[in-house]
Every structure is written in C-alpha cells, then in structure tokens.
Specification:
The chain is α/β, with parallel strands linked by helices. The chain is built from 8 helices and 19 strands. Strands 1, 2, 3, 4, 5, 6 and 19 form a 7-stranded mixed beta sheet that branches. A hairpin with a 2-residue loop joins strand 4 and strand 5. The two termini are 21 Å apart. The mean pLDDT is 96. It binds flavin-adenine dinucleotide and magnesium ion.
Length: 301
C-alpha cells in the first residue's frame, strides 16, 4: 500500500500536519521515535488554552484525537533511511520495515547541543532553560543566572531582568565589548567573569559553583543551546538547510515545501526558533500544502 503522506515525527508539529491530512480522508502514516524536544520539562507554557499543562499530556491528547481517524496509521519507531522521489518515497525504520508514501513531511524537530558544564545536562528543563517566555515566570522574581555560550548570550542576559535580578556568567565564552557592557549595566545585569566549574543543588534551585570556590544560588538558570536538525532523513534527502542564529534548520517556502519536490518540513526543524504553538501552526500549513499538492498539479509539490 502507498500512503498519501508519511509524517516523520509525531510530536506537536507532526500531529498537527497529520490531522489535516486525516481530516481530508487521505491515508497517512505517522512514524515517531518518541523523543519530544521538551521531554525534559514537566510543564509547557505560553500555548493558548494549554498554559501550564503537562508537555506530555498535550502530545498524548493530540495523538488520541488523531488516532480516532481510521485512515491514520501510527508506528512507534525511528525512520532510518529514505529513498525515492515525488509520488514514490520509501522509508525504512529501525526494525527494517519499509513504507511507501507519495509525500513526506519532516516534523523531526531539533537536537539541543548543551554547554558541557558538569551538572547542567541533568538540570535541563528542570532548573536550566533556554526560553524565558516558556519558563521565566516560574522563577518568581528571584535571582536568575545566565550562562554564556557566546556573544549572542548578551541578548538573553538583556532580556532576563524583566523576570528577576540577573547575573551573567561570561565563562570565557567571549569578550563583551563596551557597547555590550554599557547596555548590560543599563539593564542592571551583574557580570561575573570567574569561570563556572559546575552546576549543582536542588532540582528547582540551581547552584552555580565558580572556579574560585564561591557558590551562588539561583531560582533559575538560562543558557542558549545550539540546535541541530535531527537526522538523518533531511540529510539523506538533500534538503537545503539554512543557518539561523542558534543553529541550522530546514529551508522551506511559505507553503512549508522544502527544496526537494514532495518533501515538506514543519515545526522546530523548519523554523529559526520554535515553540509548541509555532509547531502546531506550522504543522497545519505543511499538512494542508502536502494534501493540496496531491490534487493540483500546478502547485509546487
Ligand atoms: P519535537 O517536539 O521535538 O518532536 C519531534 C519528534 O520527531 C520527536 O517525537 C522525535 O522523536 C521524532 N523524530 C525525530 N527524528 C525521527 C526519525 N528519524 N524517525 C521518527 N521520529 C523521529 N515550547 C513552548 O511553547 N512552551 C514551553 O514551555 C516549552 N518548554 C520547553 C522546555 C525545554 C527544556 C525545551 C528544550 C523546549 C521547550 N519548548 C517549549 C520548545 C518545544 O519543545 C518545541 O518548540 C516543540 O517541541 C517543537 O515541536 P516539534 O513537533 O517541531 O518537534
Ligand atoms: Mg512533530
């Protein structure tokens, strides 16, 4: 059997894309490896009607509602290989099974590349975050640390005083220039040049351990992760990538079509910076475009 569309990635963007195709009564397959980007965080914020909901619950409810359509097939596996072209794509999964589809939608997200400071990884999504809109409010006006990963971190440090008293750990990642120092001073940001040795402490109250022996307690820590398109399918297909401020993402038209005919991409993997609500909206665009390209030959595939 050939599916009308295969959606790779069954989180917010993939669910949303698949839902449009399901409701068009077309046959759609979702292949999902089950590693949502926000799986490290319990709650999700900023998405209308779901503010503060459990991140997993939003995805589970979306999956339940999608699977109510009889023309949807779901498999919990990783897609490892893709071959073929427009109208005849074949993907192979980790168990060695193959599936055929006329259109492909990559909703595969991004992978966060975190600073290597000891203790940080374990606290990612618990007390260390990248997005103040997602998790800043819950620091409750307390002391906030920003751990630099590069010059761009100045932007993050400039924002955070709206959420709490901010200390910016430069950590030898770059040398702030005079303009940056003046701007940070105007925002009341404290700059700390002593290198960070480790992050420790209770889960919701991270302690920054400095190399000179001082410990500083915070109610939240922020750091800009680098992001990379989650592979290997976009690379195998030869989708054009774009360099964003935080990392690469898949280049798409407004229709969410990639540079490869018949292949669409949506959500974090196809955006400069993502969120649950962006992923949901982007998925709708990709699903609708992929569906309409099955009907109108004049449309870009
Ligand atoms: P993802 O949710 O990352 O899903 C991608 C899916 O594709 C995964 O299930 C993955 O396993 C699957 N996949 C990848 N490759 C393959 C493959 N080859 N085969 C099969 N499946 C594959 N946003 C908010 O709006 N509010 C928040 O409060 C918030 N908090 C966050 C907290 C943290 C710690 C992080 C890291 C992010 C947070 N975000 C938040 C951002 C949010 O997680 C992302 O924007 C959102 O998950 C993007 O959805 P997506 O569907 O594009 O990708
Ligand atoms: Mg998805």
């Amino acid at each position: 059997m050939t599916y009308d569309a295969i959606v790779v990635g069954g989180s917010y963007s993939g669910l949303s894309a698949a839902l449009q195709i399901a409701r068009a009564r077309r046959k759609v397959l979702v292949v999902d490896a089950g590693e949502r980007r926000n799986r490290f965080a319990e709650s999700s914020h900023g998405f209308l009607t779901q503010d503060g909901s459990q991140a997993a619950q939003i995805a589970t409810l979306g999956r339940e509602q999608l699977l109510a359509y009889p023309n949807v097939t779901w498999i919990d596996e990783r897609a490892e290989n893709v071959l073929g072209s427009l109208d005849a794509f074949t993907i192979a999964t980790s168990s060695g099974t193959s599936f055929e589809g006329r259109r492909l939608i990559l909703a595969t997200g991004v992978t966060d590349i975190l600073p290597t400071v000891p203790g940080l990884r374990e606290r990612w999504g618990k007390s260390v975050f990248h997005c103040p809109y997602c998790h800043g409010y819950e620091t409750d006006g307390g002391n906030i640390g920003v751990l630099a990963t590069g010059s761009l971190s100045t932007h993050q440090a400039m924002m955070l005083p709206d959420w709490g008293r901010t200390t910016f750990f430069v950590n030898n990642m770059f040398e702030p220039d005079d303009d940056q120092l003046n701007a940070l001073a105007e925002r009341g940001v404290q700059i700390e040049y002593t290198p960070v040795k480790a992050i420790s402490g209770e889960r919701v109250e991270p302690v920054v351990e400095l190399s000179d022996g001082r410990d500083m307690l915070f109610s939240g820590l922020f750091t800009l992760s680098r992001t990379a398109v989650t592979g290997p399918l976009p690379h195998q297909l030869g989708c054009d990538l774009e360099d964003g401020l935080l990392g690469t993402f898949i280049r798409t038209e407004a229709s969410k079509m990639t540079s490869v005919p018949g292949v669409y991409a949506c959500g974090d993997t196809a955006l400069m910076a993502g969120s649950v609500s962006f992923a949901v909206g982007d998925g709708v665009k990709a699903g609708v475009s992929a569906h309409q390209s099955l009907i109108f030959s004049g449309l870009p595939h």
